[in-house]
Amino acid sequence: MSTATPWADGRLLSLQPRRPGVLFGRMYEDPGVDLAAFPPPGARVLCIASAGDTAAALAAAGHQVTAVDVNPAQLAYARARLTTGAPAATGAAERLLALGRAAAATALPAWRPAALERFLRLDDPAAQARHWHRHLDGPGLRLLLGAALRPAGALAGGLHPAFRAVLPRRFDTVLRARLARGFARHPNADNPWAWRLLLGRELPGAGRVGRELPGGGPPVRLLHGDVVEHLERSPAAAYDAVTLSNVLDGPDPAFARRLRAAVRHAVRPGGIAVLRSIREPGPAGPGAAAEDRCPLWGVVRVVRL
Ligand SMILES: C[S@@+](CC[C@H](N)C(=O)[O-])C[C@H]1O[C@@H](n2cnc3c(N)ncnc32)[C@H](O)[C@@H]1O
Fold first, then answer.
1. What's the rounded mean pLDDT across residues 88-117?
2. Are residues 47 and 60 in the same domain?
3. N or C: where does the chain have the smaller number of CB atoms within 10 Å of the terminal CB?
4. Residues 83 and 101 in one domain
5. Are strands 64-69 and 44-48 parallel, antiparallel or unpaired?
6. Cα angle at 192 between 189 and 198, to 5 degrees?
7. What is the distance in A from the centroid of ligand 1 to the CA of 8?
8. Would you say the CB of residue 28 lies under 6 angstroms from ligand 1?
9. From 23, 27, 53, 70, mutation site for ligand 1 pocket: most ligand atoms within 8 A of C-beta
10. Mean pLDDT estimate for the chain
11. For ligand 1, is residue 277 a contact (CB within 6 Å)?
């Protein structure tokens, strides 16, 4: 069956070359959420390959990891990082983030790197929340984010149409609220995603998630293809847990129905599925989104099957 996901194009922006490229040089999800929900070490787990960080973290925790990606460039990149310790590269997402940071640093003194570093060294969420509201989340940031992220904004307007349709309508306001939620909850000083997003740098002295992935770490089975097709073809109850970020951000509702059926087939009864989405939550609420130290997520749904 042919894939119906726009992620197969390997393009985040309409203007990117037509061949698939590396979209994510790093990952923007906190495997602590998955590890807390998953069965004890040794479980058969499936994740999306993306940049390889989550696969490495799950393998380091002792799980038997399969990582799948429909974008061949992303899979080759994750393979190089996981097996030979290849250095992290800059993907399309990091280029966009760097543009945003450069615009903010030029226009807003509180967003210059030295000032941001002082903010990122804080370890008291209450102090971080005060700093965020007093110094960082001002009218200048609102203007910049509005210009970039409103539906016809400089960034949102240039996205691949399937992803443009996924972004919450006022993503500028939504994103500021998600950042405020994260800074009010998780200490910056040891939050790799706060450093990565705000400063474009890795957390100084970071643990495994923040460092280059050591090649030759615990083996990860890497597969190219659509994860829905992989789950459909897998033996029943082949996995104890799966974590699937962004897989439903783009495809149509029929794809979502196929994915749910495929997860029920391939994950054993009592197993766990984690689904992350950038969308705003529906009636079921945000799930564990606030617990993810990466503040970008709208929904992190943890389901026991
Ligand atoms: C997991 S997310 C990566 C962004 C995420 N926020 C992160 O932190 O890395 C997107 C990745 O999922 C892959 N992907 C999306 N849908 C897929 C599918 N149906 N099958 C396999 N890979 C898929 C994309 O190619 C991309 O590498």
1. 96
2. yes
3. N
4. no
5. parallel
6. 85
7. 9
8. yes
9. 70
10. 93
11. no
Task: Provide the CATH number for the domain around residue 234.
Answer: 3.40.50.150
Q: Residue 4 — pLDDT band, cuts 50, 70, 90?
A: confident
Strand-pair partners of 273: 242, 303
Domain that holds residue 117: 94-157+167-199
User: Is 204 inside any structural domain?
Assistant: no
Residue type (1 letter), 268: R
Whether 259 maps to a domain, the answer reads yes
106 within some domain: yes
Spacing, Cα 10 to ligand 1 middle (Å): 10
Same domain, 86 and 225: yes
Is any ligand 1 atom within 6 A of the Cβ of residue 227?
A: yes
Query: Measured in angstroms, how far is the CA atom of residue 269 from the centroid of ligand 1?
Result: 25
Ligand 1, residue 53: give the atom nearest the CA: 9
Determine whether the shortest distance from the Cβ of 191 to ligand 1 is under 6 A.
no
Ligand 1 and 262: CB distance under 6 A: no
For atom 25 of ligand 1, which residue has the closest CA? 71
Q: Is 237 left (phi over 0), alpha (psi -120 to 50) or beta?
A: left
Q: Atom 9 in ligand 1: which residue has the minimum CA distance?
A: 27
Based on the number of CB atoms within 10 Å of its own CB, is 109 exposed (0-12), middle (13-18) or buried (19 or more)?
Answer: exposed
**Residue 233 is assigned to a structural domain of this protein:** yes
Same domain, 98 and 195: yes
Q: Give the per-residue pLDDT at 157.
A: 80
CA of 124 to the centre of ligand 1 (A): 33
SS3 call for 198: helix
The 3-state DSSP composition of the chain as helix, strand, coil percent (nearest 5) reads 45, 15, 40
Q: What is the pLDDT of residues 161-218, one digit of tens each?
A: 888 888 998 999 999 999 999 999 999 999 999 999 999 999 987 754 445 676 777 7
Report how far residue 275's alpha carbon sits from residue 166's, in angstroms, rounded to the nearest whole number. Answer: 15
